[in-house]
UniProtKB/TrEMBL annotation:
Main location: membrane
Keyword ATP-binding (UniProt): no
Binding site for heme: C198
UniProt superkingdom: Eukaryota
Native source species: Linum tenue
GO MF entries: heme binding; iron ion binding; monooxygenase activity; oxidoreductase activity, acting on paired donors, with incorporation or reduction of molecular oxygen
Compartments (UniProt record): Membrane
Protein's recorded name: Cytochrome P450
Topological type in the membrane: Single-pass membrane protein
């Protein structure tokens, strides 16, 4: 990392990226601060390390876990797979078979599938911990000031007070419903809510839609060893992220539109 910082400093001194105007990326911005504020090399390295860890961990695992759960649910529910696949192929067959971002918003049913996947399988089951500023009562519980609170998004998304048959995968439950990802419906919070809500939501959703649409457009999928959909193991491995307990193993057959 030191080599990268030194290279950048050398470039700045050659006036290509004049100090103070170097705001192309995070490193440039931090070096500008070093020029004007009390920011040393150690702090710069720490900020870069932590923010990259944040972005890489939060940015890569989350949406891939979501795609894996979505594929699992589609395999478990052939009716839903058929409907989603029909929609994707209808939209993209007329577009030279290229599944691109431009037409993703026409995949209305796939959006319901992803909403329902994120309800049952939010990759981050717990929101970032919060600390109460003052003593408050919540649902009859007294929460003292300065208490560290963990909000269980996973449990909220399955709360039987808000969802009928919460354990059932039913994308149609979101049809004609205004509930969405923005963190304003407090019974559905796959991306959290408030100030610390996920900043990568739109990016993560775009990646998930695009990958899923490509997977189900280009391939027909089968379970191995004549396994029946009802036998597919959906156990979760609980942790900071909720992944599948066992890898999802599927057999693809390429789809060739006539
Ligand atoms: C399907 C995809 C994703 C889901 C379900 C998801 C979910 C979440 C959740 C639940 C939180 C905690 C929010 C809270 O406590 O209120 C969070 C935080 C965060 N997410 Fe995501 N995320 C996704 C994709 C991404 C991507 C693609 C990025 C970056 C490129 C990203 C970056 C972050 C960061 C940096 C935080 C911490 C925010 C903070 O500390 O204030 N996420 N995410």
């Amino acid at each position: 990392m030191e080599t990268i910082i030194n290279d950048r400093l050398a470039k700045r001194s050659s006036k290509k990226a004049a100090a103070g105007n170097d705001d192309e990326d995070l490193l440039g911005v931090l070096l500008n601060l070093k020029d004007t504020d009390d920011l040393g090399f150690t702090e710069i390295k720490a900020v870069i390390l932590v923010s990259h860890m944040d972005m890489f961990l939060a940015g890569s695992d989350t949406w891939t876990i979501t795609v894996e759960w979505a594929m699992s649910e589609l395999m478990k529910h052939p009716r839903v797979m058929e409907k989603a696949q029909r929609e994707v192929r209808k939209v993209f067959n007329g577009k030279g078979c290229v599944v691109d971002e431009a037409s993703i918003d026409r995949l209305q049913y796939l959006q319901l599938v992803l909403k329902e996947t994120l309800r049952l399988h939010p990759p981050g089951p717990l929101a970032i911990p919060r600390e109460s500023k003052e003593t408050v009562m919540v649902n009859g519980y007294k929460i003292l000031a300065k208490t560290r609170v963990f909000v269980n998004l996973w449990a909220i998304n399955r709360d039987p007070h808000h969802w009928t048959q919460p354990e059932v995968f039913e994308p149609e439950r979101f049809l004609n419903s205004s509930v969405d990802f923005r963190g304003t419906d407090f019974h559905y919070l796959p991306f959290g809510a408030g100030r610390r809500m996920c900043p990568g939501m739109h990016y993560g959703l775009a990646l998930a839609y695009l990958s899923l649409a490509n997977l189900i457009y280009h391939f027909d999928w089968k379970l191995p060893h004549q396994m029946k959909p009802e036998d597919l193991d959906m156990s979760e491995r609980f942790g900071i992220e909720v992944k599948r307990q066992k890898n999802l193993i599927l057999i693809p057959a390429p789809y060739h539109p006539r």
